[in-house]
Amino acid sequence: MKKALKIVGGVVAVCLVAAAVFLLRPVSWGGNPEAENEEPVDVVLIGGGIMSVTLATYLQELEPTWDVHLYERLDQVAEESSNGWNNAGTGHSGYAEMNYTPEMPDGSINIDKAVKTVSEFEKSRQFWAHEVELGNLPEPSTFINPTPHMAVVFGEKRIEFLRKRWEALTANPMFYGMEFSTDPKQIADWAPILMDGRDPAEKVGATFMPLGTDVNYGAITRGLADGLRRNPRFHMHLSNEVRGLHQNADKTWNVTVHDLAANEDHTIKSRFVFIGAGGAALKLLQLSGIPEGKIYGGFPVGGQFLVMDDPKIADRHNVKAYGMADEGSPPMSVPHIDARKIDGKNYVLFGPFALQSTKFLKNGSWWDLFSSVYDNNVGTMLKVGADNFNLVSYLADQAALTDEDRQKQLAQYFPKAQRSDWKLITAGQRVQIIKNDPEKGAILQFGTEIVSAKDASIAALLGASPGASTSPSIAYNVLKKVFPDQVAGRWKGKLDAIYPAQDKVLNDDPALVNRIRKTTSDALKLPYITVPEDLKGAKDAKAPANDNAPASGNLNSEMQAL
User: Fold this and answer.
1) Side-chain half-sphere CA neighbours of 82 within 13 A
2) Cis omega (within 30 of 0) for bond into 466
3) What's the DSSP call for residue 90?
4) Strands 149-154 and 144-146
5) Which family does it belong to (predicted)?
6) CA geometry: angle at 244 spanning 238 and 247, to 5°?
């Protein structure tokens, strides 16, 4: 017995020593190779997704003489989260995302996040419209298309929540034109496959917003990248993986890059580094060694969708219909059945279904999660895991799903769906932020977060949704955080040209909403609705049926004369 206890004790001791050695290991094993350039370049961007490319587009317009280098580990841009097949393609505007509008203990609806999200998406529209006019983005229909957004609920209790949500939102200019209905015929007009074959006794409620959009973020990324390449001061390096980040005494950074095609390393010195590498951003932030990055960990979650491409289905469903997550489920579990247009073809996607993985990127390594754990974040990650049992339970349930289970979930939103109608695809990887917040302690944080060094020489973007749909606002916030003097000074005129209303609150000014939306709608070939200066009676203003709506123009010019 004593011998057995000694053996067990010895094994435990070895494991504890091994764990300590692992957690206390250095972030970087290499030294600081000498840079090949004596004079530092102005900017190095890591990652070829929509975030880095958007920031590069700003910089090219604001400082066209700056020497900017972008490094992407894959052989094309927009092959990870920005790719059209790796996200839901929603232009997140708060129109249908009910998790953005929680019900408070007193029964009121908090719409703050929905207002913030729609405001940021309006900035996205302004930025993309500006780039279309400059010729840096192609024909708008290749990357953004009118696709109404619906919120759909079942049962009297949730219908009442949706009604209160609609009343709260439509009192604001940016949500004017949203309709609410519990009439099965009306809802069927909005989304035929949602109601076809449904039990007539089932209580269904829905809101419908004709100003919603479907966005191909991969197409935007590729378009902006083509525009960047026309500037000889911009340099794109594909199949190049950043493996080292070392700060010099003069606050510049030596960035060591491995050329995957040539199988060789080289080092470039830069005044500023932006880490916009999606799921890989956390590990690169850790590699930088800045104190601001030591409070973070990450939890990877993959996504899967059911894809339907039969025209008999895809051509009948031209809305994005968002449901509600089950009580106690995480926000990432919100079911939605989406009209998508990818490379000119119509699809319907339903999901998401979570995919358990230790990868931080779709094309990443199974060791990604483990290699991101250190002594400074392991406690935070363990506590968040213990505090978020609902997420752990949800992921376990998702791992056990069969095709029959997925078919049953699809039938809740598409009653006549057949198993032969769909195929299962794996979408992108997301890394949820785990943070040791100074005030709240260990938290699992949804959304995106900009982390920058105190000296503003390096910044990283962590997190996920709404992500790509608000990428211009996020990149603009990066500029304000690391280049505050230029934003307030010599860049102000050019930024004002992109965002005429940047210092004003759109949601407080119907006339301003009308002016901005008409301008961006004309440029992007999207519909708009004129908001009355007096919103009294807004709930009585009915948007036209989506099957008769024009591809662009004022939706109330004939049918909603005010």
Assistant:
1) 30
2) yes
3) B
4) unpaired
5) Belongs to the MQO family.
6) 120
Report the distance separating Cα 135 and Cα 152, nearest Å: 38
Give residue 384's identity as a one-letter amino acid code. V
Spatial separation of the C-alpha atoms in residues 278 and 353, rounded to whole Å: 20
- Strand partners for 304: 353, 426
SS3 179: strand
Task: Return the closest-CA partner of residue 341 out of 519, 132, 137, 551.
Answer: 551
Kindly report which listed range (194-203, 339-348, 371-380, 485-494) carries the lowest average pLDDT score. Answer: 371-380
Write down the pLDDT at residue 113.
Answer: 93
Per-residue DSSP letters for 133-168? HHTSS--GGGTEEE--EEEEEESHHHHHHHHHHHHH
Determine the Cα–Cα distance for residues 474 and 471; give it in Å rounded to an integer.
5
| Local structure of 437: helix, strand or coil | strand
Non-local CB neighbours of 490 within 8 Å, separated by 6+ positions: none
* CA 473 – CA 122 distance, rounded (Å): 9
pLDDT at 506 over 50: yes
Residue 325, H or E segment = none
Compute the distance between CA of residue 246 and CA of residue 166 in angstroms, rounded to an integer: 51
The full DSSP string for 216-228 is: -HHHHHHHHHHHH
Cα separation of 539 and 300, whole Å?
Answer: 42
Distances from the Cα of 399 to the Cα of 103, 272, 301, 395, angstroms: 30, 42, 11, 6
549 and 210 in contact (C-beta within 8 Å)?
A: yes
DSSP class of 350: E
Q: For the chain, how big is the Rg over CA atoms in Å?
A: 25
Phi first, then psi, for residue 82 (nearest 5°) are -75, -20
**Number of continuous H segments (helices) and E segments (strands) in the chain:** 18, 21
Distances (CA, A) of 317 to 94, 469, 547: 20, 22, 10
Interatomic CA distance for residues 285 and 28, integer angstroms: 12
In this structure, the chain runs to a length of: 562
Query: Any idea what DSSP says for residue 246?
Result: E
Report the distance separating Cα 405 and Cα 30, nearest Å. Answer: 48
Report yes or no: 513 and 174 within 8 Å, Cβ to Cβ: yes
Q: CA 534 to CA 550: how far, in whole Å?
A: 26
Place of tokens 């996020």: 474
Max Cα distance, the chain (Å) = 90
| Dihedral, CA of residue 119, residue 122, residue 128 and residue 134, to nearest 10 | -110
Question: Taking Cα atoms as reference points, which of 197, 215, 234, 238 lies closest to residue 47?
Answer: 238
pLDDT in tens, 436-471: 888 888 888 777 899 999 999 999 999 876 679 999
